Amino acid sequence: FAVKNIMFSDGRYKPSVSICSGLVICLIWIGIAGVGCRTVNSGKKSVDSIRLFTSSALFNIDGEPGSNGFSARVFAVHNSIAKPIQITEGTLEIIIYDGDASRDQSLKPRQVWSFSGTDLPRYLRQTSIGFSYDFILKIDNSKPLPSKVSIGAKYTLPEGDSIFAKTVSIAIEP
Questions:
Q1: Are 70 and 55 in contact (CB under 8 A)?
Q2: What integer is the mean pLDDT of 22-30?
């Protein structure tokens, strides 16, 4: 199979019919293959897991002596989507425990902040890696803080099932 080019009178070459038809077939194939790779937004995506990141230390929010706040960032993950997604329904809770909750699962929460699907858009941020929810939360200091606290997150679906993030422990400096 030989490809021949035909020369125009001004010295340019005219590609043969086989080259043109090959290009057309290639473009059609790319168009068909591209349709299969298109991402379709089919509406709501379910949350399969959540990830919690917190500040490495407590900090002062209100100017009163002592540490009384922290920042938390939560990512909601759907397993078939590369980037974190938005939470459109259900409830997200940030929970703080006195002590190390990762070792002692029976600890009672010190404080719980609860955000419904309608509250969450206030805290929504979109970054290059996807959606996150950013919180700066003040701890109730009605009782003294221990030497360590643990922070966790829980997402409760409308059906009632709950998904937990791994807790993060923070040592409190005296």
A1: yes
A2: 57
- Among 1, 27, 4, CA closest to 16: 4
Neighbour count for residue 90 (Cβ, 10 Å):
21
Give kind and range of the element (H or E) at residue 84: none
DSSP lists the bridge partners of residue 149 as 98, 170
Residue 39 is predicted with a pLDDT of 35
Q: Quote the CA–CA distance of 80 and 131 in Å, as a whole number.
A: 15
Whether the predicted pLDDT of 32 surpasses 60 = no
| 0.85 surpassed by pTM | no
Q: Is the pLDDT of residue 153 over 60?
A: yes
Mean pLDDT throughout 111-137?
A: 95
Token output for 105:
């699962």
Q: Residue 66: left if φ>0, alpha if ψ -120 to 50, beta else—which one?
A: left
> Which phi and psi (to 5°) does residue 34 adopt?
-65, -30
Measured on CA atoms in the order 41, 42, 47, 48, is the torsion positive or negative?
A: negative
- What is the DSSP pairing of strand 109-116 with strand 49-54? unpaired
Residue 29 contacts residue 143 (beta carbons within 8 Å): no
Contact 63, 41 (CB under 8 A): no
d(CA 154, CA 92): 6
